[in-house]
Structures are given as C-alpha cells and as structure tokens.
Design brief:
Blueprint: H1 2-20, H2 36-51, H3 59-63, E1 76-78, E2 85-89, E3 111-113, E4 135-137, E5 143-145, E6 158-160, E7 165-168, E8 182-184, E9 189-193, E10 207-209, E11 214-217, E12 231-233, E13 238-239, E14 241-242, E15 255-257, E16 264-267, H4 286-294, E17 311-313, E18 318-321, E19 335-337, E20 342-343, E21 359-361, E22 368-370, E23 383-385, E24 390-392, E25 407-409, E26 416-417, E27 431-433, E28 438-441, E29 455-457, E30 462-466, E31 486-488, H5 507-543, H6 547-557, H7 563-569, E32 578-582, E33 585-591, E34 597-603, H8 608-623, E35 632-638, E36 641-647, H9 654-659, H10 668-688, E37 703-705, E38 711-713, H11 718-723, H12 743-748, H13 753-769, H14 784-791, H15 796-799, H16 812-826, H17 837-854
Parallel strand pairs: 2-3, 3-4, 4-6, 5-7, 6-8, 7-9, 8-10, 9-11, 10-12, 11-13, 12-15, 14-16, 15-17, 16-18, 17-19, 18-20, 19-21, 21-23, 22-24, 23-25, 25-27, 26-28, 27-29, 28-30, 30-31
Antiparallel strand pairs: 1-2, 32-33, 33-34, 34-36, 35-36, 37-38
Bound molecules: 2-acetamido-2-deoxy-beta-D-glucopyranose (12 copies).
Length: 855
Amino acid sequence: MAILVLVATLLLLAAGKLSSGTSSATSLPLIGSAAVYGSDNDIAALLAFKAQLSDPLGILQANWTAGTSFCHWLGVSCSRRRLRVTALALNDVPLQGRISPHLGNLSFLSMLNLTSTELTSSIPLEFGRLRRLKFLALGNNFSGAIPPTLGNLTSLESIDLWGNLLSGQIPKELQNLSNLRHINLQTNYLTGTVASDLFNKTSLLRYLNLGNNSLSGTIPRSIGHLRMLQSLTLQFNNFSGPMPPSIFNMSRLQYMYLRASNSLTGTIPGSNSSFTFPCYKFSPSPRTDSQEIACFGPIPSRISMLCNLEGLYLDSNNFSHAIPNGVGNLTNLRSLMISQNSISSTIPASIFQLASLIALDLSQNSLEGELPAYIGHLKQINSIDLSANLLVGTLPTTLGQLQTLNYLNLSHNSINGSFPDTMDKLANLESLDISYNDLSGTIPQYFANFTYLTSLNLSFNKLHGPLPEGGVFVNISLQSLVGNMDLCGGASGLRLPPCQTNHRPTYHNHRILRFLLPTVIIVVGAVTTGVYMMMRNEVKKQEGRVVSRDMVISTLNHSIISYHEIVRSTDNFSETNLLGAGSFGKVYKGQLSNGMVVAVKVLNMQLEQAARSFDSECHALRMARHRNLIRVLSTCSNLDFKALVLQYMPNGSLETHLHTDGGVHLGCSQRLDIMLDVSMAMEYLHYQNIEVVLHCDLKPSNILFDEDMVAHVADFGIAKLFYGDDNSMVSASMTGTIGYMAPEYGSVGKASRRSDVFSYGIVLLELFTGKKPTDPMFIGELTLRKWIDQAFPTNLMDIMDDRLLQDSFYSWNNFLVPIFEVGLLCSNDMPDKRMTMRDVVVRLMKIKESLAEIM
Ligand SMILES: *[C@@H]1O[C@H](CO)[C@@H](O)[C@H](O)[C@H]1NC(C)=O
Ligand SMILES: *[C@@H]1O[C@H](CO)[C@@H](O)[C@H](O)[C@H]1NC(C)=O
Ligand SMILES: *[C@@H]1O[C@H](CO)[C@@H](O)[C@H](O)[C@H]1NC(C)=O
Ligand SMILES: *[C@@H]1O[C@H](CO)[C@@H](O)[C@H](O)[C@H]1NC(C)=O
Ligand SMILES: *[C@@H]1O[C@H](CO)[C@@H](O)[C@H](O)[C@H]1NC(C)=O
Ligand SMILES: *[C@@H]1O[C@H](CO)[C@@H](O)[C@H](O)[C@H]1NC(C)=O
Ligand SMILES: *[C@@H]1O[C@H](CO)[C@@H](O)[C@H](O)[C@H]1NC(C)=O
Ligand SMILES: *[C@@H]1O[C@H](CO)[C@@H](O)[C@H](O)[C@H]1NC(C)=O
Ligand SMILES: *[C@@H]1O[C@H](CO)[C@@H](O)[C@H](O)[C@H]1NC(C)=O
Ligand SMILES: *[C@@H]1O[C@H](CO)[C@@H](O)[C@H](O)[C@H]1NC(C)=O
Ligand SMILES: *[C@@H]1O[C@H](CO)[C@@H](O)[C@H](O)[C@H]1NC(C)=O
Ligand SMILES: *[C@@H]1O[C@H](CO)[C@@H](O)[C@H](O)[C@H]1NC(C)=O
C-alpha cells in the first residue's frame, strides 16, 4: 500500500512537472497548449483514481504512464480541441480496490463505465459534480446507497447500476433527471417505497428496470407519465396493491415484466370498462396525440390499448377474476405469462387468435371450460402451459395444427376422452405433460415417432393397452406411467404386465371358440400368407426405388411438410403460381391443405456442401423470428429437392412500389417506417438471434409487405445455406447484387455485418431519392452515394424523390439531413467507418420522434 501511494505521488509529481512544462515546446507528450489548467485537473483526477486501485494484473500500471499523453491511456477519451477527458470506459478491466472521489473532478466527462471492474466501494457523492455526464454505468460490486447527488446530473441519459450490492431507497432527487432515457437498477438490495413523483419529469424514458430488489408499497401513479416507455420491469419486488391504471397509457410499451412483484392485486385492468378506446399504433403523428388528449369519460384502463406489446409477464401475483377479452387485441404479443394468480374465468377465445404468440403460460390459476377448437390458430406457438387449472372437455382435434409446438403442459386438469389422431402432426414436440387428467383409450403409436420428444408424462390418467415401442418409450420411467388403468408391455425394467394378444376368453367364448377355432385358423392362415406375399413384393419394389431412401432422409431431418404436399399446394409448380425467380431458385405461391397460403422457395441446390449443411442451417433460419422478417415456416428436403416454406406477403416488394407505375404512394413517414422496420430486422439478425445471420443480399426486391403494408425482410441467410460458413467462398458473381454490394464484399468476397450495413445504406439512399444505384445517370466516377454526398447537407431538396413533395413540411432540411446522413454513413467505402445496425435503429427512432415536431 505504501509503495502504491509512493508511486502515485511520484506520478502526480511527474505529471505536474510535465504539464507545467507545456509552454516550452520541448515536452509536449501530455497535453497541448490549450486549456492547460483543465487538463491538469483531469490528469490529477485520473492519477488519484489510479492510486486507489489494486490493479492486480498491472494493466494501468503498464499503460497509464507519464510517457504518453493521458488522452491515449487505456479507456480514456478526450475532446479534440480542449483535451479534456470526455469518456472513461474501463469496463471489464479487473482494477479492484476503491473508487476515488476525485473522479468527480473530470468536469467534461460525458461517459463513465466501470462495470465489472471488481471495484467494491460505495459510489462517491462527488459524482454529483459530473454535470456533463450522459452515460453512467457501474455494475459489480458497488455497495452503499445511491447518492442523492446524482440528482444533479441533469444531462444524464442513461444510468445503469445493474447487479451491485446497493441498498437503501431510490433517492427522490433522481426525479429531476428529465433527460433520462434508460434506468437499470436491477438486482440490488434497494428497499422502501418508490417516491410518488419520481417519474413526473422523466417523460423521455424508454427503458425502466427496477427488478429483483425489495421495493415495497404501491407502484407510483406517476409511472403513467412515461409515455415513451418501451420496456417496463418491476418484477421480483415487494410491491403491493393494485396496478395503477396509468400503466395502460403507455401505448408504446413492448415488454411488461411484473412477475412476482409480490402481491399486486385486483383484476387485470380492462375487463370491466364499458368504453372502447382506439388502439394507438406506435406512430408519433400529431393525429394520434390529439386522439389521446380527447380520451372524456372514465380513466381509460383497457389493456387493449397497449397494442405494441410483445411481452406481458404478470405471473406470481394476486390478480383475480377474468383475463380481459381485450388481450386478444394485442396482435403483436409474443409472450403472455399470467401463471400463479387467482384468475377464475374461461380462457378468452381471443387469446387463441393471437397469431404471433410464441409462448403462453396460464398455469396455476382457476381457469375453467374447455380447450376451444380454434386453438389451432396459434400458428407460431412454441410453448403452451395450461397446467393446474380446472379445464374440462376433450383434446381438440385442431391441436394437430400447432406444428411449431415444442412444449405442451396440460397436467392437473380434468381433460377426458382419448388422444385425437391428428396429434400425430406434432412432430416438433419435445415435452408433453398430460399427467393428472382423465384421458382414456390407448397410448398412440405416433408418440414413438416424434424424434425430438424426450419428456413424456402420462401418469394418473385412465389409459390402457400396450406401450408403444421405440422413440421416447425406450427410456420412459415408471413415474411417467403410474396411475393408469391397464398399461402393458414396455421394457422389462418398467415391470408392466406383458400384453396379451387376445383378451382372456370368458367361459361363454370358450364354447363358441370350440366350434369356430378350426375355421378361424384356416382363414387367418390364408390371410396371413396373402399379406406376407404382398408385403414381400412391396418391399422388393421399394428396394429398387430411390424414393425409399429419400423417405428415410426426410424422416431424419424432421421435415414437417412433405414433398407431395408441396407439389399439391403449388399445383405441381404451375406457372400461374410462380411469384418470382432469382439466382437461388424460384418462388411459388401455394395453399397448404389446412388452408394457409404460403410462399414456397424451391432452391437450385447443386453444391454437395450445401446439401450437407442445409438442414442445420434451416433450423437456424426457422429459429429467427421477428415481426419484420419473413418467417420460415417449414422446410422440405430430400436428396435432390430442397425448399423453404415461407410466410406469404400479399402486398409486393419495395422494388415494385418504388419503381413501377402500379405502386402505392409512399409518404415520408411511411418510408422512414420501412427503413426503421428493416433496420430492426437486420439488427435482430446481426445481434439478437441465436447466431449471427448475415443477409448478403439486401435490396428493395427483398423487402416485402404484408396485408398491413408492414415491411418484412426476405431471403436472409440464404447465402449461408449455399456456402456454409466459408465466407471466402462467397464470390461476387454468385451472391449480392451490383449496386448494393459493399466494395470489400465485391472485391474480396468477404461478407460481414458491415457489408450488410452498406447494402442497407444504399437502399435508404435509393428510397429517399427514388433513384436506383444502377440508374444510367451514374456513370464513371459518379455513384448514387457520391451524387448525394455532393448535395449534402444544403442541397438535399434537389436530389430527393419529387414524389415526397406531396407531404408538407415546414422544414424539409431538418428531416432530410439526418436521414441522408444515416444513408451516407452506412454506405461509406471503408467498412469500419460505417454505423452498426444497432446505432441505425437508435438514430432512426430519434428521427421518427422529431418528425412529429416538424411535420
Ligand atoms: C478535486 O476537486 C476538489 C475540490 O475542488 C479538490 O479538493 C481536490 O484536490 C481535487 N482532486 C484532485 C485530484 O485534483
Ligand atoms: C495503452 O492502451 C491503449 C489502448 O489499448 C494503446 O493504444 C496504447 O498504445 C497503450 N499505451 C501503452 C504505453 O501501452
Ligand atoms: C458498460 O460496460 C458494460 C460491460 O462491458 C457494457 O455491457 C455496457 O454496454 C457499457 N455501457 C455503456 C453505456 O457503455
Ligand atoms: C463481485 O461480484 C462477483 C460476481 O458478479 C462475485 O463473484 C464476487 O464475489 C463479488 N465480489 C465481492 C467483493 O462482492
Ligand atoms: C447536488 O445535490 C445535493 C443533494 O441533492 C445538493 O445539496 C447540492 O447543492 C447539489 N449541488 C449542485 C452543485 O447542484
Ligand atoms: C429538483 O430541481 C429543482 C430546481 O432545480 C429543485 O428546486 C428541487 O429541490 C429539486 N428536487 C429534488 C427532489 O432534488
Ligand atoms: C436476483 O438477485 C439474487 C440475489 O440478490 C440473484 O442471485 C439472482 O440471480 C437475481 N436474479 C435475477 C433474475 O437477476
Ligand atoms: C406529479 O404528478 C402527479 C400526477 O401524476 C401530481 O399529482 C403531482 O403533483 C406531481 N408532482 C410534482 C412534484 O409535480
Ligand atoms: C419481501 O418479500 C419477501 C418474500 O415475501 C420477504 O421474505 C422479504 O422479507 C420482503 N422484504 C421486505 C424488505 O419487505
Ligand atoms: C392518460 O393520458 C391522458 C392524456 O395525457 C390523461 O388525460 C389521462 O388522465 C391519462 N390516464 C391515466 C389513467 O393516467
Ligand atoms: C378489439 O377487438 C375487437 C374484436 O376484434 C374489436 O371489436 C374492438 O374494437 C377491438 N378493440 C380495440 C381497442 O382495438
Ligand atoms: C411412424 O413413422 C413411419 C416412418 O415414417 C411410418 O411408416 C409410420 O406410419 C409412423 N407411425 C405412426 C403411428 O405415425
């Protein structure tokens, strides 16, 4: 310790000496000539900070040396002119020790990130002096209270204190931080109530996370001021009382996590208001606002107003009565979790109409009634848990339509009847629990055919008859079978009685048999011989055909849709069903036997490597789910035929609307929405999907519109289907389209997230100029980008698409400059100068918000 202090003192002295010498031209390394005093303060603060660290790996010891300008020290960024420290980002560097209050002297600091630095002290009160601070991130392992002085940081946009040991209350002083967009205090030991006015002025907040603390009292009503909120997390706390109705004023909310907030009570709002309110789409156009202000009569409390909601998590509270019908209006909902409450109604029919729903958990309530037939409408569902309720009736035959289902739990209800034959279509099922019901009949053979099924619980029903062989039954345990009527067979370890081929004859039967037996033996003998001969012939025939091998391969690959079904649905690939053709193959419109209209992309696959990776790649594509991506519904593959079954888009492509006479007029805000939608889909593919999926061929003809004119990106990941991981194989002539292809992709054949960003930038520039990058006017050195760059930023009106003039703005340039800036940044020739898709989304959101003001 003494040595550290000594070293620090020496460094301080050295720094002082060097910096005081800056007026002479000889010793310049530390700072330039300007603002010497300010820089002095910054160096002193940094060295004082360093002096209190243990720096176990000596990282700062080796790097923060007097020989280099402090602006080049690890984690330090400076303003260019004044050479003042603007950012200190040492996140994930193991520093250990205590955090120095002297950091509060870095008066130009705008970003401080000391997350995961193993510092252990409390947050210094002096941080309240960083009045230019915009981003504060301190995760692991700060302790003590959140200093009330942070309420002075009026520039603060983001405060991230996730995963610390912070205790005490959330200081009410934070209510003055009117620029906050992001608050994350999750997983601390915060207690007490949340100040009732805390959210009165923080109306720009997008993200609020107070989860996993011990906060108590009611959720403050002022939360209703957060009109821009997109994600709300209050779960795992000790809140009580009713949910404030103002929550349902947050019309942009996409995620609401209130699970185990501990005893929130009341009904889920919305069930008993007799008024209907318009559902606000996420669109900041002035008209929407005026509708909201209109809003006489009682407090609007209909959950159906939150129509942007994608996730609603209300489990483990004390909600009672009914689930409101309005839940069915939340058409973007992907997850609905209301388990462990006291709800006692029938399940509203409308829930089963939510075609986007992926996960539904209503377990551990007192829900009554039957499973309705239209459960089959849940076309995207992966997981259904309705266990521990009071459901009655039989299993609807439409269950078989849930072909994307992986997890089904209906245990602890009173469902009767037998398993419907149609359930044999649930080939993607991984886990099925139907224990503690009243099911009768035999166990269907098809369960043994479900290749993914690894968990099956049939215990405590009234099932009888033989256990099927193979598949999940090979390793099934007795616990999954006990409590049934009369099961037999199975592995010897199960100790079920062996199955008898005939029912044990009664005395009465004995007498009949005595007469019939000889005849029976003769007839059976003859029939058996006949069948045997027929089977031999059949087997012989099949051996000679490739079809049988194909069948085996498709079974292994779990294709849900058969080749036969595809042929039928496309009317044998008839020309009238042809939607388009490209280098990868043709696309047909088709109608499946369940009535669903789909697009079938038949791939020209010749490369042997592609054939090998097709199924694993398809699996990845099928997992990619986003509202702005075309869904890959299914695949079909055998040795010489490969097809993707896709969501059908009835409203054509951006290419047609932009460049043909029949196209619809796309206004400014609509074009912005399209680019925002596309950016969100791309951001998802690049960062949020299970693995990074590159598009490699983004262009207007790959941006398609659904019935509501919402844009969906098509053809993502196709390049990888063809070439596997070996990006260097992707050569310019094979994928990518001239004009949209990044220069490095074209020349070296290297695809990356940045090459996708380039294509995105070109599409954006095209959309707002109405000019294709391949327009004949772009000859020689002049490209679309160069043409725009020359007009930027003052003459953008000259190059924008004339058709946009139909929209009236009072300030065109305020709109066009930021838009074209994004396009230009994305399409920079140098890959590392381009924006990331993440930044594009953020930037476009901002532009969209400001659009409302300038229109
Ligand atoms: C930081 O500022 C305070 C108050 O102005 C001062 O007492 C302290 O010495 C400064 N710390 C450093 C390291 O300069
Ligand atoms: C300190 O780290 C920065 C950033 O990694 C690096 O650019 C610089 O060269 C390093 N300086 C020394 C002296 O190692
Ligand atoms: C701070 O660092 C953490 C950990 O590396 C990172 O996840 C977070 O995004 C950073 N926050 C900011 C504002 O840079
Ligand atoms: C800091 O946090 C890590 C995990 O985040 C934990 O393993 C470690 O024990 C903590 N250290 C202290 C001193 O609390
Ligand atoms: C900062 O906040 C504290 C406590 O809230 C207050 O006493 C102090 O006056 C504030 N300082 C400045 C410079 O605003
Ligand atoms: C918020 O700011 C106002 C004006 O700057 C100040 O008067 C008030 O005390 C502050 N409130 C809190 C709780 O810090
Ligand atoms: C909640 O906090 C506890 C300890 O405070 C921690 O172990 C747990 O992982 C946290 N859960 C989440 C979801 O952050
Ligand atoms: C905060 O807003 C509530 C209404 O939500 C209002 O009653 C209260 O007076 C406001 N408080 C302040 C300090 O503005
Ligand atoms: C929060 O609730 C939990 C579980 O009900 C309880 O153990 C804990 O003591 C409560 N904490 C506070 C601060 O009320
Ligand atoms: C919802 O917002 C409107 C408009 O600001 C307001 O008049 C109304 O009181 C709010 N309702 C609730 C429940 O906060
Ligand atoms: C909810 O859906 C029903 C039926 O589809 C419709 O009548 C009602 O107007 C919708 N309500 C809202 C708020 O959109
Ligand atoms: C199981 O799969 C095989 C091979 O695809 C098929 O012949 C058989 O009919 C299936 N059995 C059931 C009960 O679906």
